[in-house]
Structure formats: structure tokens, C-alpha cells
Amino acid sequence: MPLLSLIIFVPWVGALLLAALPRIGDGAARVLTLIASLSTLALGLVALASFHPAAPGFQFVEQHDWIRSLNVHYHLGLDGMSLLLVLLTGIVSPAALLASWKQARSPRYFGLLFLALQGAALGVFLALDFFHWFIFWELSLVPAFFLIKLWGGPGAARAAYQFFIYTLAGSAFMLLGFAAIFAATGTLDFTQLARLAADGLLVEKLAAVSGFWPQAVFLGVLLGLAVKVPLFPFHTWLPPAYAEAPVGVSMFLTGVMSKMGVYGFLRILWPLFPAHLHAASGWLLCLALGGVVFGAFAAMRQTDLKRMVAYSSVNHLSYCLLALFAVSYSTGRIGFTVPASIAAFAGTLLQMFNHGLSAAALFLCVGILESRSGGRRGLGDFGGVRTAAPVFAGLCGITMFSSLGLPGLNGFVGEFLIFRGVFGLAPCTATIATLGLLATALFLLTFWQRVFHGPRAGAASREFRDVAGIELVALVPLVALMFLFGVLPHLLTNLFNPLVTSWVSHINPVVTTAQLPLP
Amino acid sequence: MTAALILIALLILGSTAVAMSLRNLIHSALLLVLSWMGIAAFYLWAGAEFVAFAQVLVYAGAVSMIVLFAVLLTRRSRADLSIAPASLRRAVAGVLAGGATAGVLTLAVLRTNLQIAPSAAPTVTVQQLGLELIGPQVASVLVVGVILTVALLGAVVLAASDRNDGKEDAP
Amino acid sequence: MTLSVQHLWLIPALPLLAAAIGALTPSGGRTLAASAAIAAMVAAFVLSCCALVAALADPTANLTYNFTWFDLGTGAVRLGWLLNPLTAFMCVMVTFVGTLIFVFSLGYMHDDENFTRFFCFLSLFAAAMLGIVVSNSLLFLFVSWELVGLASYLLIGFWFQKPEAAAAAKKAFITTRIGDLGLLLGMVWLYHARGTLLFFDGGAGVLEPASLTALMVSTLSCGLAVSTAISLLIFCGAVGKSGQFPLHVWLPDAMEGPTPVSALIHAATMVAAGVFLIARIYPLMEADYHHHNLPIHALTVVAFIGAITALMGALIAVAQNDIKRVLAFSTVSQLGFMMLAIGVGSWVAAIFHLLTHAFFKALLFLGAGSVIHAAHHEQDMRKLGGLSGPMRVTFLTFAVGMMALAGVPFLFSGFWSKEAILHAAHAWDVSHIPLYFGLTAVVLTAFYMTRLVAETFFGKPRSHAAGLAHENPAVMTVPLVILAACAILLSLLAWPTPWLQHQLDPQAHTEPGGLSLMMLSIVLVALGLGAGWALYGRLLRTNASAPDPLAAALPRLHAFLAARMMFDELYAATFGRLSNGLAALADGLDRYVWGGLVNLVARLGQFGGLVNREADEDGLNAGFDAVSRKVRSVGQIYSRAQTGETHGYLRVIALGFVVLVLLVMLGGVR
Amino acid sequence: MNTLQLCLLISSALFCIGLAGALSRTNTILVLLGIELMLNAANLNFIAFWRFNPAPLPATGVIFVIFAIAVAAAEAAVGLALVIAIYRHQQNIRLQDATRLKG
What we know:
Structural class of chain D: mainly alpha
Number of strands of chain D: 0
Radius of gyration of chain D: 17 Å
Helix content of chain D: over 70%
Oligomer: heterotetramer
Mean pLDDT of chain A: 85
Radius of gyration of chain A: 22 Å
């Protein structure tokens, strides 16, 4: 059974069905969308059941000739990292749909675009050939653009254009980079390219064309991924896009799409250009640190709750990059140790997953607030919500503390491992990065205090419904998973332990001894 | 061998030339059927039986029927069937162009040193053809199938009578 | 009956279970939530006693049970439980005091609409604290540590409708988190250096000799031993949690929570955690002590921070009017004493003081709560007064607590634990400054406690609420009586034989406490008591607005102390402004610099388009227009050939073909 | 002159007859038939070359002719449908009258 193809294409089939049924009722369209979206979780669990973490390489591989003249294969594969992200998509997408359940305006088109987006994201996580990887990567932009523009808030059009153009510009550089790689090596398969890179042949072949090419290609790919993650200071598209998007789309954007960039870093940039990454990692480390610190402090300053959560996303994702760059930075230097690198990578993967859960849930909470206040979501538009809606306050509080990295909830383990790794590899960086932790606590607690505590004010001074029904169905599983993965992180770590170990064992110190200066 | 070829050639060329110059459209069409049969005979002579049968089926059978239908559908009276050849100028110009082309082609054929196979005619069985068609040529077969379908649909759409056509297209 | 170390997790698990029950109980299920919480605490107390029996069977042994939490790469992250006398004594104290506070809360919170949630949070608080105590891993300790922070946040902000309570909760969380960041870094460093965070692991733990030697031997570029650096970082956590200078600012504000919470925070759980942590990792703190080439020793820092805190807390307490705030600053001061004790090398004295302090501080807070409850939430002691009559039990028990805290000799436990600390400080060979600070604090403690009792209980009621006060029901007074009894009986642990000392640390040499020092401290206590009585007992204020005699004598100093030495203002002016500035900077960078850059690029693109258009219109297009007009006219000529006549086309094609073939044949174009 | 050349000459003649017919007649149907004849002439060439090729590829010419016949049939169908459409439009099928598409 072509499991991975099913995972990717079932949402698209759902989208096609919706497209083919123009007279479908609103309710039926919603249910159909939800079922198609839930398929990812179901199939992801099937993959989980027969997944062997200890087996090396990719599993459930599907490889077929596609365009023989271009040496393009239809190549799908799944390893621990992909599985983690597929499961995350499976969890976040239905929750996002449920969050947008009350979406009044044409749920059929909404569902159609959403499913297209979901399938594209899954394709990015499973594709192993740049050709269709890039197709999926770009295809994910189109539905996201329309979802933001058509269903978003008042500033949505501008935000959507900014999002689209910015990320498209980034990926254009990446495309050029890969065109160069193809011209030099004749293949676009990630595994083959990684093997070439491990033997040092990739850079050699690129350099054979022109001495400037390896650097240019590296920078192009880096730029494309950095915009997507986003790496500070390429993040300015993110806050408006996340803030203006409808709540479900914000959840998907932050929960799944922001992982695509980190995934790209781990799947493409790092395996293909270890030496260049190493050479640039000093600067990149500073940028990631900037994201950690500035992201958190900028969030402190926001009065729009969604923008605040969006900045917290910048902060949290920068931790992932911080860990990766720290490993890259220290390879071949004195500070390098295997356990620290393993911890850094494991922390990155955990953080990717956990941030997906927490940030999506946080957006959901803000969305619920927004729905109660008639679309307003300023820090000053609320007060004393905890009195009015205690259950909601409790669930939102758990989400908030999870995002803040409280032990016992999911966020902690990842952040601890990242700090443990980064401290072992680049101690000063880790020390400065704790500022980010502090600022995160500051702005989240400020949010909590202003919105939930104090006397009832603003929107909460009128009638204010507690969470119920669909909202509860969307929020409670996320919260339950926060507890689950906070207490039992081995459910996740067992999936990628061998993978992470092999990554670290394949770090080739010889590659990094050649100090390649950036142009 | 050659004699048979010359006979076939005479049949083809003669019937065609007459068909092209007759006034009566029905007669022309019927003579063309004869010409197509002659071509089929040529195929048989050359050893391509399958093509010969296809020629008979498609041209002598199908195309001729369509032609006849078209002729019958596009006339208003019996007089329409006989069509005078166009102006002499046009006819002369046409024959001149055809003759020039013929001269050029004949020259080209005669001046080119063409080697021919000493051996007997290559044989190709229908089975071989079928294997070839669904094997290496399957994509082309599919494309041709699509073309035929589209052509059929297009023909139906074009020919389907629509009462409002005249009004809409009126300038 | 004993409790084996494998089952030690039951002690924190029971309150945690009760917390879960409380969380899931609807607000109507008061009885269920409260009974679950109290039953869990009682059960945990019984288990703790069993654990104590097990631990005392061999006081030198560190019984451990370690297990894998999750695999990481090829290794594993391991946690564990540790049972030794320190654990056991702490468990017993926390569960015992906790139980009494829980019972007291039954009465105190009786009218609160969020009764069930209160017990849920209390149980969580106790569970987290017990988690700290039983942990054999710094990681699990940290986990529980943060949960303590969470529980304190929830409880301090329990009356979250009050903006002050919400702000105080946030302040407590943030301030302690600043310290926790140090702890996190220290922990991460320790993990990195040793590859494990288990305290005891059959020779491989971080508190065992091999590890200590390794940590002590390696030094940083600045000359500091790694162990010193790690110790100091971990100490940051304790500074935050235990309200040490300079992170003590959250503790007085934490009074915004309900009084039983204050009792729990100040006596048994939160602030004790910091002292406990330092006592737990004492071998690590002490590792650099005998290494003389180092610029600084971790314990020295601890001792001075403790001494400063002890003196500062006592000084500020003198000028506070809120009954709970006085007690809060006295807690700060006493915690300073404990840190001082650890710093001068006697963690046993610190733990002894921690235990006795837990009892009498719980007693004092609950007594204050009793007063506040009776006086309809009037906390300003200038408006109280004359409560000794109507509130007999509260008064007597409170007096016991006050004398224990002030260190009235012989009968009260506080005296013995404080003596132990002073003796240790006296024996410290580095400096005597901590001793002098401590002695000053002793005088001040006796002074402000006398003032507190005198103003609250003596004289006439100075407000309507105080006049209506009457004794509380038994559910609130019985815990007071029990705690008062304990505050006295705990003296037996130290006298006539230093039993506790032997149990905790059998190898420790017991200092033959100089009699002169004991006499000195007795004199000082008497001095404090006398001064307090002279200023506040004899000249009882007659109404609430009468000026404070001390304020009249030293107005500026008093105002400074009353404003809590302006720490809040200082922090607001420095760190607060710094972080706001950083936030504004980050936001501004985003909005104007990065966003501006992006917009600039976009504008440049637009501008390019504009320039292009203009240039096109005037320059290029004019030429193009001319050319294209030409082309158009030529095209019109040529288009005449496009007659639409099919024959014509066909003819041209045929002739073209002929010409082409002729060209090829005749011209020899190949 | 060998047999192959003879065949080519025959097909050339057929082609030219078709061409002359298509050029000189005004009836659209006859023009179409002329074009069909030209196609047939091309087919004759295919078969001839296939038949007399010194190193014949198996069935290539035959396959080509089969496809050509298929396409020619499609063309005939569409062409005659067009004729009918034109007729309906301008009430005759004189080719020189159908010049509405001129540029």
C-alpha cells in the first residue's frame, strides 16, 4: 500500500471532492473537510504502528521514475523527523478546522483551500526529491495566500501579499540554487545529494563550474529557508500574516507551516552544505539568538494578542535554529561533544513538535477571545475573563504555561534539551538566550494578567460565554496532549533517537576543518 | 511485378484525375472511392495488408460516406450537384501550380540515387503490429485516440444545427 | 513499619492525586475536594513518618532508587528518589505543617466561592514541594521547583479579581524565574560537565566524591573552579525562591494571597525550598572550600548574602504596619539566617532552623490569619488592638510563636536553632561580619515582634472591625494549639542532646558552643524585647492615626524602611526600564528598521517602476511609437496579402515549395 | 529507374493531381478531397520506402501510415463538419466566399 502517497493525496482528494460538489451544503462541506483532514492523523498512526525507529534510512519508501530525461523520481520516504511532523499535522489540522467551524463565509471553499494547504505541507515533509518537494513547497503558498486574504481581518490583503511575495522571493533564490545543483550534479534527489555532500563531492562539482557557485548556492538555499522559518531579521512578514489570518489558518501556519522551514534546514541545508553552514554559523548563531531575544522582547511590546503570539512563535522557532547552528558552529572545535549535540538535535525536534501544539492552542485561545469580543483582540479589550469563563481560563492557562516552558507540560523537555545542548556547545549563547525565557514569561504573564485577571472589563463585562461544544472539542485534545508529552516525552524521543544518534555520528569533522570564508 | 504496379498506378491516377475534373459532385465522390481502392491495391502490392484493409475501411467505407452525406446536406436543389469548374484563370493557375510541383518532384526523384532492397518484401504480421502499437507506441496510440475523440466531438458540435446560429452570427 | 525508597514517590503523588481530584470537581463539591486534600496530606504524613523510620535506621546511608525517564540518543535521562534523614525530616515537616494549614483553611476559606479550587492549588503546592524533597535528581528537583513556582503563582493570585493580587502573583513568578534561569544554567552546566544530574548513583552521582573532585579540579579562564561557578548559578535559584537579597522583593507582595497560603509559602513550602536545595547540594557547594587558590568560594557568597538578607529583612520589618508584612519581612530575615548558617558551613543548623521556623512561622501566620479573619480582613495593626481579651487562644498561641521567633531562651525551639546558627557563625574562620549582622538582626527581631504583639493584642480596639472581633471556631484554633505545642516541643530535638544534628550529619563535629556567646545573645534578645516594650508596650497608641514613636524619632530612616528600602522603585527604575526599553527597541527595530527595509525594497521596486514608466513614456516610447507606426503601416501593406482566400494560400505554398526545391537542387544548398 | 523511383513518381503524380484539384475547384468539398489525396500520396511514399528500404525497420512505415490514416480520418470529419457549418452560415460552400477570417 503506498502509505505515504495516501497521506499526501487523501487531503487533496478531499479538496477535489469539494471542488466537484458545488451544491454541497455548508454542514456537509465542513464534515467532509474534517474527515479528509483527519485522514492524516489516522494514516499517520498507521505509519507509527509499523514504524521501526531503529531501522536506518527512510521507511515506506516509494520511488518511481517520473521524468526520465531530467532524472526526476517520484521519491517519498519517512524517517523519525517526518513522522513527527506528519503526526503534528494530523493533530493540528483537525483542531484548526474545528477552530474555524463557525466560519460563516463559504465553508466549502475554505475547506477546499485548507485541504490543499494540508496536502502540500505533508508533501513537503515526505518528499525526497527536490523537484516535487519544491512543487509542494510553493503550492502551500497559494492556498495560504487565499485563506489569509479572503477570510482574514481588515489588513489581510496587505499581509497576504507581503507573506506571499516575501516567501516567494526567498524560495526563488532557493530554486536558482537548486537549478545550479542540478546543472552541476545531474540529480535532485536529497539522499543522493546528501551522499555526495558527505563525500565532499557536491561542493567539488559546484566549484568545478565556477569557484563562486558553492557559496552562491548555499546562500540562495539559506535565504529561502530563512524566510520561511523565519530567521531573524527575515521575520517581518510573519506577525501581520499570523495576526490577520483567520484563527484556524493562524493555527495551521504556526503549527505546521513554520515547521517546514526548520525541516528544510535539517533535511537540506545541513546535510548538503555542512562546511558552509559551519563557516557561516557564527553569524547565524547571532541571528538565531537575535530571534530568541528580540522575538520575546518585541512580543512584550505588542498590544494585539495575535501579534504577541506571533512574536512568541519567532522566539520559539529560533530556539530550534539556535540548536542547529550551535552544533554546526562547534563541529571541529574544542567545544564539540557528542552528547550535547544529540541533546541539541533531540531538543530541536521536540521543540518543533511541542511548539506546534502550544502555539496552535494559544492561537485557538486568542481566537476564542476574539469571537467573544466581536473581533477585537487588543490587550486592553478584556479584563477579568477568568471570572466570566473559568474553564476557558484554565485551559488557556495551561496552554500559556506550556508555551512558557513549565516543567510537566510539553514545552519544557524540548527547551531543556536545547539549552543543555547549546550550553555544552556554545555556553555564552545559551546564557544570553535565557533572556528570551525571561521575556517570554514576562509577556505571557502580562497577557494573562491583563486579560484574565482583575475585575471584569471590556468584552468580559458583558455576557461572556465559557468554552463549550466545538471549541472544547478542539482545545481539550491539544491540552491533554500537552500533559501527555510533558510527562512521557519518550513517546516522542523514541521515534527519533536512532535518527539523531546517526546524525551526530555522521558529522564529519574533516569537512569542517576546511575553513571556507563567505564571500 | 512492375506491370501490376503500372496497372495500379494507371487506375489510381486515372480515376483521380477524372474525379477532380468532373462537374457532378456525386460522380466525383464515387470515382474517388475507386481511386482509394486503387491505393489499397498498391498497399497490397507492397505487402502491407493491414494498411490496405485500413485504407479500404476508412476511406472507401467511412470517408466516402461522410463526403456523400456532406454533399447531400449542402445542396438546395438538384442543380447544385453539378458545379461548373471555376473560372478558366483559376483552373489554369491550379494546373500550372500542380504541374510545376510535379515537374520539380519528378526531377527530384529521378536525380536522387535511391538504393532499394534486393530482398523480398518485408513481412509484418498483424500480431507484430499489435505488439508494436500497445508496446513502444502506446503513448501515440493514446494520443491518436484522444485526437479522434476530440475531432468527433468537435465535428458534432460544429455540425449540430442550432436554430439561433444565424441570428447570433449576423453581422 | 518502614517505607522503602522505591515507594517514596507515593508521598508527593498522593497530594498530586488530590489536586487532580480538586481540579476535576465542580465548584459544588466542596466536601470532596477538601477531604481528598486533607486525607492525602494525612496519608502522606503517615508515609513520611514511615520513611523517617527507614531513614533513621542508618542515618549515613543515602538510599536511592533511580530509573530512566526517557532515552536520549544512546544515553538516557534518568531520575530517581533519594531517602536520607534530610529527606525524611523535610517530608515529615511539610506534611505535618501542611496538614494543619489545610485544616485551618477549612475554616478560613469557608465562605469563598472558589473553595474547591483553593484546595486543588494547595495540594498541588504541597505535592510540588514534596517532589523537591524526595528527588534524587537535580532535573526532577527543577521540575518540582518550577511547579512550586506555578502553585505559588496560582495561590498568590487566588483573589485574581483584585489587581494587586494579580500583579503580586506575576511579580512572584517573574522574580523567582530570574533566579531559576541561573538554576537552569547551573543545572545544564552540571549536566554537561558530568553527564548526569542524579545526586547519588552508586559513585557516579554528582554529589559523590569522584564527581566533586573532577568539578573542583577544572577551572575556568577567570580562575574560578567549575564547581564554584555551578554552585553560584544554582544558588541564584535559591536566592529567588528563598527571598534572599536582592530578589526578595516578591515575598512581601505575596501577602496578597489568602493567609493560609502565606503560611504555606513562608513556613513549609516555597521559601524552604531554596534552603533545602542548598543543603541538598551542600557537598557541591563545599567542594571548593579547601582549595585555597581560588578567588572566591561559593559558600562565602552564600554566607554574606544570607547575612545581608537577615539584617535587611529585620530592619524593614521594624517599619511595617501591615501585620502580614511584618511577618513576611521576618521570614526574609530568618531565611537570611538559614543561608548564613549554610554559608558558614553548618547546613545542619540551617535545616534545624528551617524546621523550627516552619512550625512557629506557620503558627504566626495562622494566628495572624485568625486575627484577620476575626477582624473582618483588617490587616493594619494600627487599627487593631485589644484582641487579647476576646481572642484568648489566638493570643496565647501567637505569643508562643512570637517568643520562639524572637529567640526567648531555653523553652522555645527558635532559641536553640538560632543559637546553633550563631555558634556556627562564630566558629567561621573567614570573617566575623556575618556574626555581627546576625546579632544585630537578633535584637531587631525581638524588637519588632514585641511591637507586633503589643500593637495587635494590647490596649483598646482602634477600629470598629477590631472591636467586633471574637474567637474563631475550633477548626482554626486547634491547628494553632498544635503548632504552638510543637514550637515548644521541638526544643527537645536540640536539647538536652543535639539529637537532630547527629541524625542529619553524624560526622559533623559539634561545636562546644561558647557559653559567653549564648549569654550575649540572651542579653541581646532581652534588649530587643525591652526596647520594644518600652517604645510600644508602655506607650500604647490610642487611635489609629497616632504617630509611630520610631517615626517621630527618626522620620527619614523610618520612611526609607517603610518604603522597603526603595527596592521596588530601584528595580522599576533600572531593570523594569531596561526591559521595557529592550522591548521598545525590539519592536521599533521590527516596525521601523526591518519593516522599513522591507518597505524600502518594495518602494525601490515601485520607484524603479515609476522611473521606468516615465523614461518609457518620454524617451523610449516616443521612439518606439514612431517605429511601431512604421511597422504598422508596412504590416498593413503586407496584410493585403492575407486575403482570406484559401486558394491563394494554397497556391503560394505550392509555389514556395517549388522554389525551395529548385533552390536546393540547382543552388546546391545542402 | 528502379521500382522505388517508379513508386515515388506515382505518388508525386497523385500528389500533384490532388494539388491541382484543390487549387482549381471552388467547391469546398472537392478542395478537401484534394487534400485527402495529397495525404494519400504521402502514405504511398511511406509504404514505398518501407517496402524498398535496404535495411527495413520492422513495421515503422506501416505504423506511420496507420496513424496518418487515423489523423486524416479525423481531419476529414472535422473538415466536412466545417463545410456544413459554413453552408449553414452562408448558404453555399464556395471556398472563395469564406473570407471572413481575413486579417
